[in-house]
UniProtKB/TrEMBL annotation, chains A, B:
Name of the protein described by the UniProt record: Cytochrome c556
The organism's taxonomic lineage, starting at the top: Bacteria, Pseudomonadati, Pseudomonadota, Gammaproteobacteria, Chromatiales
Species, as recorded: Thiocystis violascens (strain ATCC 17096 / DSM 198 / 6111) (Chromatium violascens)
GO biological process, one term: electron transport chain
Pfam families tied to this protein: Cytochrom_C_2
GO molecular function annotation: electron transfer activity; heme binding; iron ion binding
């Protein structure tokens, strides 16, 4: 699935939107929810990796890829609202302040990430291990491209 | 989407599977990953609720419902392996021990939950607010049915 620049930018930097519909979400709650999303995607990435390295269950891989793609497309940009660029009490974030200063670049990275996640989900539904291997590597690269620039301790 | 009893039971109580493919996942990691899944579903439930109570964006609701359904279908049963029935250091769990002793009942509740999540995703794709309202209420009931029996502090 391809998406427009407009809709992705909306998803990534939907600060105004976040302020309106989620006025009740505190910055620390936004940080915790976005970390939950990344954590759950990480579990599913791990499952796909284990399948590629061992017994391959196309059903498990497809379900894992679907979860990653649906989370990636859920509008997590709304969880990067004002005040979420720093630790808040016990709630720590590894995001670099630069993420909030480079909307265009972050939007581009996010589009590539969502495209790679959608592609993996489509490929996984077909069940061919070698194809999954390539699509999985592409998705991993898309993850790392953002981590390298905008996540601390990498 | 309907699923068989066998595949759901596999998903819910896949202890043997978990031991094989995820031998590297410690019990505390399993607890953290499952909590991440529930937390992210909770964020998406909140978004749908906000849409039903205010301006209704069928696109946002559909994406939120897709995330919930994909997480629900991702095989979270593998995150209820041995040793995950109690707090582990700083990692706390609200699961009651009874969950691990009532596989058949838990499997039934999980099937109802996944069916309700799939139904909401299908309904949300059609974009009719009144239909979403009903499907959302059904999903909420399915969540609560399990919380009431198997989650502490409710």
């Amino acid at each position: 699935m391809k998406r427009t620049v407009a809709s992705t930018t909306f998803g990534i930097l939907a600060v105004a939107f976040a302020s309106a519909a989620f006025a009740d979400l505190k910055p620390e709650e936004q940080i915790e929810y976005r970390q939950a999303g990344y954590s759950f995607m990480s579990w599913n990435m791990g499952k796909i990796k284990a399948n590629l390295e061992g017994d391959f269950s196309s059903d498990q891989v497809s379900k894992a890829a679907n979860a990653i793609a649906a989370i990636a497309n859920s509008g997590m940009g709304a969880l990067y609202g004002p005040g979420t660029d720093q630790n808040i009490g016990e709630v720590k974030t590894r995001v670099k302040p630069e993420l909030f200063q480079n909307g265009e670049d972050v939007g581009q990275l996010a589009r590539e990430f969502m495209d790679a996640a959608d592609n993996l989900a489509e490929i996984a539904a077909e069940g061919e291990k070698s194809e999954v291997q390539a699509a999985f590597a592409d998705l991993g690269s898309a993850c790392k491209a953002c981590h390298k620039k905008y996540r601390a301790d990498n």
